[in-house]
From TrEMBL:
Single GO MF annotation: structural constituent of ribosome
Family listed: Belongs to the universal ribosomal protein uL30 family.
Record domain Large ribosomal subunit protein uL30-like ferredoxin-like fold: where: 12-62
InterPro entries: Ribo_uL30_ferredoxin-like_sf, Ribosomal_uL30_bac-type, Ribosomal_uL30_ferredoxin-like
Protein name: Large ribosomal subunit protein uL30
GO BP: translation
Source species: Rhodanobacter spathiphylli B39
PANTHER family: LARGE RIBOSOMAL SUBUNIT PROTEIN UL30M, MITOCHONDRIAL RIBOSOMAL PROTEIN L30
NCBIfam families linked to this entry: rpmD_bact
Quaternary structure, from the entry: Part of the 50S ribosomal subunit.
Amino acid sequence: MAKKNETAAATVRVRLVKGLRGVQARHRLSVKALGLGKLNDVRELKDSPQVRGLINTVYYLVRVEE
């Protein structure tokens, strides 16, 4: 049971480090789905496969701080 509690509490911090100008519209939507709007915005999100997929899509725009 300890493993379930560990994964439920796992979070990942995501910071937007590059501007969205000249970026594909799909990638802009992915950044918005992560809850990031301006440069240097930071969000703490639940570590899930869906969030990891969004991060992988825009890997060149964000920095992951675990």
